[in-house]
Amino acid sequence: MSDVNTSTAADGGSAATLTRLEQEGEIAADYLEGLLDIADLDGDIDMDVEGERASVSIIGDTASRDLNKLVGRDGEVLEALQELTRLAVHRETGERSRLMLDIAGFRARKRAELTKLGTDAAAEAKETGEPVKLDPMTPFERKVVHDAVAAAGLRSESEGEEPHRRVVVLPA
Fold first, then answer.
1. At what angle do helices 139-151 and 106-128 cross, to 10 degrees?
2. How do residues 123-150 score in pLDDT, each as one tens digit?
3. For this UniProt entry, which segments traverse the membrane (predicted)?
4. Which domains does the chain have, with CATH numbers?
């Protein structure tokens, strides 16, 4: 039911790190392939190494809406599946995983939206000279926004407690 593609984007990491991250990707792919079989869903599994983390994506036919069930409302099911996949990797390796899971391109689209949000908030903070407080976000979302703000030349910080933790963009 599913095909597995592997690619690595070496980011200056050591061979041992890449090997460990590739192993995480393989374990995750096996786990997710079993999940797809149980759920009777079609999807291809693509593995990559991005920076210092393994990245696994489940890609399906764009005409099929089945994989959207694995994303859920606002990515809630995707977040849960990512945690379960990280637990499966931990069970096999004995090490905590920072693996990133994407399904049907949800995270890729979300990353583009959040990058624009961070860039726009940085522009607003520069223009007004006032801090810009954003709505509460997940850790993944905050990380993307922090990166976009840093790329725009400003600082940002997180404030509040989960699940109401938010990014505040600070003026220069």
1. 50
2. 999 999 999 999 999 888 999 999 999 9
3. none
4. 4-104 (3.30.300.20), 109-170 (3.30.1370.50)
